[in-house]
Structures are given as C-alpha cells and as structure tokens.
User: Fold these one by one.
Assistant:
Number 1:
Amino acid sequence: MRLIFELLGEDIKLAKAEVFSLFQDYKILFDLGTILGLKVSKDLCSKEDLRLLAMTHCVSEILGESDSIKEDIIESVKKISIEKRPLFVRCRKVKESKLRSGEVERAVGEIFYQKGFKIDLREPEIEIRIIICGERAFIARKICDCDKKILRKNPLEMPFFYPGVLNPKLARVLVNLCGLKKGERLLDPMCGSGGILIEGASRGLEVFGVDARERMVEGALKNLRSSAFKGYNLMVGDSRNLCFKDRSMDGIVVDMPYGQSSPIIGKSARELYYRSMEEIFRIFKKRCVVVAREDLSEIAEIIGFRSIERYEQRVHRSLTRKILVLS
C-alpha cells in the first residue's frame, strides 16, 4: 500500500519521526519536505492510528503519479479504477508550478464524470487529491484527515492546571513516538497534571502515572476523569524508586522537570535524571521517550540504552527541549 502524508510545516523532522513510529516495516518512496511517501503493509495500516497523528494534515493512498503536466495527469487519472461513489477533486500545489489548481480540478473531475461518477461538492464519499510537487504530480484518494479536534482541550480549560504543562500536540507526538499498540501499558513516572497520560489513554493504552507530589496526582486524576477515558492508574511515588516489576511497562514517556515551574527532587538535577533513568531502564520493554532541558544521551548510554533518535524543540529564547527516543 502506497501512502502519501501531507505534513504540517512547523517541525518537519519530528513530524516524519511521528509517521515512521506507526510502522515496524516501511519503505520511503519519496521525501519532498512536507510531502512524504511510504510503502507499507496494508495489514499494518490502521485508519484510527493515522487519524491520531498530531503533526500531519491528512493521509491519502496513492492511485497514480505523473509529470506535472495537465495532459499527463489526465492520462494517469484515466487508468485509475475505483468503486463508483460520489466524489470531488481537490488540487494542492506544494511547490511552484505553472498549473492552475482550479483548472486541474475541473479537468480531473470531468474525467471521473465521463467514467460515470457523480461529482458531489457537498457530501462526497471520496476525495481525490492531486498533489503537485514541482515537476511531479501525485493522484491520491484521501484516507483521513488527522483530526486535531480530538486533541485534548486547552490545558487552561482543564479542571486542574499547573504552569509549564506540555501543550497537547507535543504530548501526543511524544506518545506516538513510543510506537505502542492499543491495550499496551504506558508509564509516565513524572506525570504532573496528566497531559501525557490523557494522550496515551486516547490511543487506547493502559496508562500509569506517578508523581512525587500528592497535589499533582490528585490534579491528574481530575483531568483524566473529565476526559472520560478509562484504563488509568495513578499513585504518589518517587521516579528514582518505582514500585513496578522489571520489564513491566511496554513504553515510558517522561518530561523531566526543568527546575522552574517543576521542582527538582533529590540532591541535584543530574542525580534525579540519572537515578530516574536507571529505573526507567529497569522497567521498560520496548521504547522510551525522554524530554529534558539538557541532552541526556550520555547518561542514557552509560545506563545501557541505545539512542534511536535525537530531536530538539525550541520553546523560547531560554528553553529548548531535548527529546530522546530510546530502546
């Protein structure tokens, strides 16, 4: 199955990593900045998983491709065979092209009309997307929009708010990077107000949250209850001495405290990071995603992790988050 991902432009590297995390096996067909083409197994492609991508606009199945010449696009469309259901055509130019979007939409729509399709602009059952990338054009059938409405609401609107909370989009990206499947177990050993847990629960994961501050655990519980998700477990505890058995969590996502709105517990930040990472290493099975103010890759390697990828996200002039994906 050939898929085309139309990525958001705010952080291309992180957006691609989020897409790759969905698939254990894939082949990159093309990488054109905000347009990414992958070949994946149809059996491993879940529409629900695709919808939950936080940094992708929409996902479509590639039906054909051609040079970005109107006549070539039309010839490619003529070869496409799909079930006859009401459809409409949308053309998007990602890179500079002399072609006019409206002209391409009308020409392609006319071909489908001649094939016996009903063109329905109000309630179409199929959306055909013509994506023009410079000299190439891709004809695709949209599978889904990545629904930003299902991201949890603004943290300020939640029953419990605490400064420094991750924004919902980044929390979802971090959970997606962990690459877990529905029903698997996710731990956040410094859960704060529960943002990561909420995004994990939205994916159907069984989530576990620990925080050293009772007030934060109570607040996270309120937020989870208000989100109407099930399968969550919270407790007061120390991330340096967790009560879970070895290899008992499929994945772990943690946003380490920065020492500003979130206090450093222990002798120092480095001691907290090191001992917490030791516990994370003991407990996890598959993959961990660790966010901190500083690069913890050296600590991770000493403990025994294998670093998969490193990312950075600039928050403001004095704070750049360092994101590690570890196994």
Note: The longest strand covers residues 56-67.
Number 2:
Amino acid sequence: MAFYEKMSIIDKKDREILFHLSLHARASLKEIAKKTRVSKEVVHYRIKNLEAKGIIEGYYAVINTYRMGWTFYRVYMKTFNMTADIEQKFIQFLKNNKNVTWVVQMDGDLDFLYVVWAKDISEFQKTYMEINDAFGKYLEQKFFSVMTDVYYFKSKYLLTKESDSFQLTGGKIYYPDLDAEDKQLLTLLSHDCRLSLMDIAKKIKSTAKTVQRRMKKLEHAKIITCYQVKINHKLLGYTQRKIMLNLNDTSTQTMKKLITFLTYHPLTIYITIAIGQYDLEFEMMESSHEDFHKLLKALKKEFGNIIKNYSTVIFYDEPKVGQLALE
C-alpha cells in the first residue's frame, strides 16, 4: 500500500490529535478539543478509534534517568547465525530483564540496540555479562555509548510543520529520595501514563489527591520529563530512520547550530548526544527514501565541511520502550 493510501486511513483531525498527544499524552479531552477545534466527545471517539486501529499502541512517561541517579548505557549489536527462533528468545530475554529499558530491532549495518539504566559502570557490566553469557556466541560485533542528552520532539511529521517544541533528558546526575509509592507510580506511568488519577490511586492503594501531588513533585524535579504517545508509524506509511554522524568539529558553537537545524526540521523526532562511536545521532520519520536524501542534502549544504561520515539504520520494531520495574 502506497504512503498516501496508508495516510488516508486517518484524516487531518486524527493527525492533529496525535500531534497534540505527542509530549503531552496526559492532556485532557478538553485541552485537546480546544486545540483541534472539535468537541470533547469527538476527541474521545477519535482517540478510541485510533487505539482500536492499532495506530495508538500505548502511552508512557519519559523518565530522566539522570535525575534518578542512573546512567543511560546503550549497546549496539550486529548478530550472526541467529535463527528466527533464537532471535525471539533473545528479544524476550531483553524484555524480561528489569535493567533493560529499551529494545530496538533494526535493519541495516546493525541488528539490535538495547538500553541499560545502571547506577554505575559495574552495574552495567553485570547486566551486559548476563546477556552476553546467554547470547554472546551470536554476536558478530558491538559498540557501546553513554547517552548525555536526548531531545524529544513533537510528531511534526504528521502535519509537516516546523516546531521548536521539545523536551530534554540527561544532564547532571541527581540522587533523589524516592519512597516505595514514588517507585510504584513511576513504574505504572512508564507502562500507561494516560490512566486517570483515580485508576492510578486504586492500583497503588493511595488517593487521587496524593497521586496528583506526587506526580507534580516528580515533574517539578524533572524526573518525569514528559508523557508520550506510542504511534504505530508503519501503519501510516512512515519509516523510522536513525542517522549517526561523525564530525570534524564538535565545538559547543557548531553542535548548537547543528542541533538548531535539526530541531526545526519537520521530520526530526529525536536528537541524541552521546559519548561513544558517534558524535551526534538523530532520528527522522520518512514517507519515502527521498525524504532521507533531501534531509541529507540539506545537511551537507549547511554542514558539509564538518560532517566526516555517517551511518544509518532503519528501526524495524521496538519491543520495549522505557518500561520500568522499580522495586
């Protein structure tokens, strides 16, 4: 099915609703209705319809690991001799590991990316070795990186519009004093952030007023960065691509210009700064291969003198997206 045929399964109002849910997935029906100029009832109906179609796959709180005393370690992998059966066992193994919070299956030069949240390098090594002991014989190559900053953008690609609205995770490490109820709340919100205050209160055996107070505290402390909607972009004809850049110049001024350029581009959904194999990574949504080449051409026109080389992969699936299991 061609891109425009897939996009026809939702109309402009649906796309507007999805756009306003991005980075604000706890927005009330009233708030979304005001922004999209339809009634609350229409918004409710359309959201339920998008969920039923599988276009909305879920809602989750974006947690800033650094505000919880954890570092964001990433492992990129190329595998070999991994059958489909073993691949599924590997994915399930990663999903079941409470220290692994993100799992991505990719097409291209790499096959997998998984993220480990750990308090220090020793804790990361322990988790990595558990995975390596079980599946290391299928590993052809790997590299590690430590995330320092991630920029989350609204789903601009749905409306093909420029927007500089973003949320940022990373930064200085803090060690907050979180009690059992805070951890329960964060775990729950990382799985479904659109639950009502009453539903959350029932699940963690608290009151709606207490839940609201704790959420505001976690938001104020920037432990909760934002609330995101998980969109099945493939049903809409989009492909998620990651581009990883090596640069000749990584000065603060140059990086700022490059980040600003990507921030305003309507197809950019993430920018990642990390210590590791690449100097800057970003992700985009493309409706065709031409979208990628147009963006790359624009990048080379503006920054051709500083881009040393690049690598790119396609995100095929994300079996796990930031779900916590805090004790």
Note: The chain has a mean pLDDT of 94.
Number 3:
Amino acid sequence: MYKKILVAIDGSEFSLTGGEIALNLSERFGSGVLAAHVYDGKIHSHRLREMEPDLPEQYQEEAHLRHIRDSHNELIYDGFKALSKGYIEDFEKRAEEKKIEIEHVYREGKNYSGILEILEERQPGLVILGAWGLGFWSESMIGSTAVRVLRMAGCDVLIARRKMSSERILVGLDGSGEALNALDKSVSWAKALNKPLHIASAYDPFFHGKIFNTMATALSSERQQDVGLNNQQSLHDNLIDEGLGKLYQRFLEIGAKQALQGGITPETSLLKGKTIEQIVNLSVKTDPDLIVMGRYGHHRNDKAQVGSNSEAIVRMAKTNILVTEPE
C-alpha cells in the first residue's frame, strides 16, 4: 500500500510509539521507512541576542559578546546535531532488531515546516508523528506540530497516541468518495494487521429541530406564518429526518459490501447525533486501535485544509488516528 513511510522522531514517548507503528507497517506492507528529526537552533540564537542588553556590565563589550555568541552557537548547533543523531540511532537499533533498513534525514528549522519540506521532497504515501512531542502538556488535545502537519501534509497522516494491540479498526463513513477511499484503506490495514473492522455512520436528526425551535423563538407569529414554519417542521419530522436515517443506513450497506469484496466482514453501527460526538463516544466504548477518516466529507470546501469533523475527532479521540488523502 505504502512504498515509503516517513516517521518523525524527536525522542518523545509519542514519537517512539509512532516509530513502532512505522516498523510494524513496514513488515506488513513492505514499505521503506524514512526517519526524520527536525531541530530549531536559530530560535536559541535569536533569544540570546534579545537577552544581551540584560547581561552583566562586564559582558557588554563587543569582544565579550562576540565570544558568547560564538560559544553559544557552537554549543547549540553541535549539541542539536548530536542529539538528532542520537534519536535516529536509537530508532535504527529497533529497526535492526526487525531486520528493517531505514533511511534517515536531519533538518534544521521549525519542526512542522521542516517535516513539510521533507514530505514535499521525498513524497511518501504516509507520514507518522506523535500527537505530542517533548513539549507535551496534559491539558492540550494535540501538539501544534502534529496539527500543522495534519493540515498541510498532502499525504495520509497517522497521529500516534498509543501502541497497537489486538483491538479493532474503526472507520467513519458518510457516503462521500473520500470516506469510501478511507474505507478501502481501512480494509487493507485490517487485513495486513489482522484486526476486525468496524464501520460507523452518524447522522443528526436533531439539528433541524434546534433550527425550528430557534425560529419559533426569534420570529413573530406573522413571520412564522409567512415562512410556513409549522408545515416545514412537520415535513422535516416526517420525511427529512426519517429519510436521513435511511440514507445513512444505505451508506453502511454500501460500505459493508465494499469491505466484503475486499475480504473483510465488518461490524456496522448507525449512530444518531452529531458526528464528532458519536464517533468519539463510540471509540470510548469500543476502544479501537485506530480510527480512520477521510480528510474531507460531503461538505468539502476548496479553501479547507481538512474537514471540520476529521480535525475535531483527531483532537478529541484517545487513540491513533489515520486521516487519508483523497485519491
């Protein structure tokens, strides 16, 4: 499926988890693995320059300042290079144990921009990175590097949060071409990793009721009659909302048939409510190893980097997430 996988390594627990997933996938798919570490030395030099006016008086002479700058730069850049090589060498040892050869690349610059540059240069089919890096904060849903790469990667993106076990793969399906593409990839993953597949489709029959309640509150009786509010509400209750359920059930049936053709017999779930809430809640109940979603759904906008449901689920779910790029 993937000729090449890029995995971002920074020594954090989450990046090491991503590394293990990359090696596992390499074994199953025969993929090449490219390990990358990006370090930012310039920011430290910039900060030192900003601090110079507050240094003690004996260090304010230009000769002293130049010596401090040179020493600091040598320490920072040489230190970062050594650290970078150390992270990758540790990962290489894990790869050697599995008899997997990896390539490596080091890059100086902002983390997310460096990763994006490497993606553009090397064109892997999948990039894997930890949900957080060394700057992990327990109150944060996802790290800034991960979300920026997610939005701009141009390939499949896996956000790693935990080690893979024997649990299922959960894929969200809304009937769009992007979702059906994500389902195809889910089938390939399920077969390669020997995991059961669970297809879920969520529709919201309550949204229109909220709109009508708001209109009933905001509009005068005369305006309600002008727009035929009561008739419209009855139409939605009797036809539209019920029809949505049938439509999404049909999406599930199409998805199940597609999975069967790929050699997997899936479990299916039709969920009522807001898509984000329902998929996240289902993941809490079923504890999948992986949630798979298309980058976009039915309401794709050319200016959007990623669909709102997909990004929100990436932020809120507690497991690994694969966001697939449209074919």
Note: The domain at 1-162 is CATH 3.40.50.620 (Rossmann fold).
Number 4:
Amino acid sequence: MNLSIIIVSWNTVDLLRRCLASVYADLPPAEMEVLVVDNASTDGSPEMVRAEFPQVTLLVNRQNVGFAAANNQAIRQSQGRYVLLLNPDTEVKPGALSTLLHFMDAHPEAGGCGPRLLNPDGSLQTSCYPAPTLARELWRLLHLDRVRPYGVYRMDDWPQNVPREVDVLLGACLLVRREAFQQVGLLSEDYFIYSEEVDLCYRLRQAGWSLVWVPQAQVVHFGGQSTRQVAAEMFLHLYRGKLLYFRKNHGWASAQIYRLILLVTALARLALTPLAWLEPPARRQEHLTLAGHYGRLVKVLAGQSSIINRQS
C-alpha cells in the first residue's frame, strides 16, 4: 500500500462529499486507501459515506475526540507508506496527489510535504509558516505583518513552480512519510484541535527531516467549516494549543511569557472596543463578537496553569 488518505470530519456532510469526489476523480496510479473518521456528526455524514463511497473505510466515534486523536485512530489502522492528512473542507485539484507522491519518492530526506493551498476564488492561501517564536507571536498579535512580514512568509513573492523548504506546513493537506511518524510519534493528543501539526512539524525538523511546500500540487481549502460552528470555543482552543506548544517544546518560562503577551494584547484590544461603535453595522458586529472572544480568553488565561504546567 503506497498511500493512506485520512479525513477527519465533524458536521461537514456536503463538503466531505465534495472532498471525497475530488479524491476519487483523479486517483494516483499507486495503490491507496481512504479512511474517514467521523467525530460524532449529527448531519448524516456517516450515512452519506456509507451510501455514496462504500470503498471508504469509515470509523465512527460516539463523541468528538478531537482532531489529533481522530487522525491517530486512522493512522494506526492505515497501511500506506505515505499518510495524507486531509481536511474535509478541501477539494483536491487534478494531479495534486500524484505530484506530492512523486516529490516524496524523489526526496527521501523529506519527512513531509504540502501543496499550494488556494482560496475558493483561486487566490493564494497561506499554506506554511515560519516556526512560532515569542517574537513572531507578538508581531502577529500586533498585526505588524501588514507593515513587514515576519510572523508569516512572503508567499506572494515565491515562484509558483519551485518547491521550497519551510518550517511548518498547514494541516489542511499534509503528506507525511510513515517512517517519519514511526521515528517521532503520531500527533500529540494533548491538543484537541489547533497546533497539533505545528508540534508535529517541530518534532520532524528536530529529528532531521525536511518539510517542503510543493506549489505544483494544488488543493482548494474552504477553511474553518467545522470550527466556525462553535467559533467561541474554537477561539479558546486556538490559544490553548499555542500555549501548550510553547510549554511542550520551549519550556515553562516561554509559556509564561506567551501567556503574558496574550493577556496584554487581549486587554489592549478590549480597551479599544468602544471604537467599534463608530464603524458600519456589519464591521461593528464583527469587532464586538471578537471582543467577546477576547474577554473569554482573558478569563481563561487567569486559570491557565493546568496547561502551562503540563509536562511534555
């Protein structure tokens, strides 16, 4: 078995159907399998997979065990030399799977690779990032990348036909060599959702594997279709994941500093919230909703010691 494609889904039946259809519309010549893990969906996703894609290996969880744990379920059951972690809100463009597989075959030093992700309108979407540091996180939280990219790559300036080694590949579509998984371990189940692929990429690079962005392979990523159903909760998971990443990989002191950075920037945003009333209604509501998220984040950060003190 050459390729195992793993898709974790939660209440994205229509997008999952589209994703699976795109996979089976352009199969690579290599032997492959597709495993779908359903995290207790209530929208008929498992029934759709059984009825329309009977060739898929379907794993159905009675509760939402999280993104990392669900992926690991399927990775342990899969048999492919390569494992593709694929979000259900993606559409694989023709030739993408073959291109990624050929790249990995030709570059045994690569532990993983990822495609050029596209927005639904065909524009370039962020597909990779520099490794997170405290300075980069502060830069990002202050929105200074608009002035000078530092927390992100200048991907618009990159050639679109030349692979490029990067620090972190986005988990929406990430092809990993099984040998690399066997060396560094699977996704850390300490993460429920968010930062699990950042943690994996860190461990792969620490073990000497390279990670490569392969723009010749293209995948449309609709983005956040599961998480926006519970946006407030996911906002908290985002920063819990980042805190845990710093604690696990850079130590207790780094996590404490990051916690302080989050508190200061969140409080600064809240202090500016009254200015939202000067904006048009739609923009105002967006900023007020975001302020609510930051208010909850401040409360959570006050009791965040359980994550900061967690041992890696």
Note: Residues 297 and 303 are 10 Å apart (CA to CA).
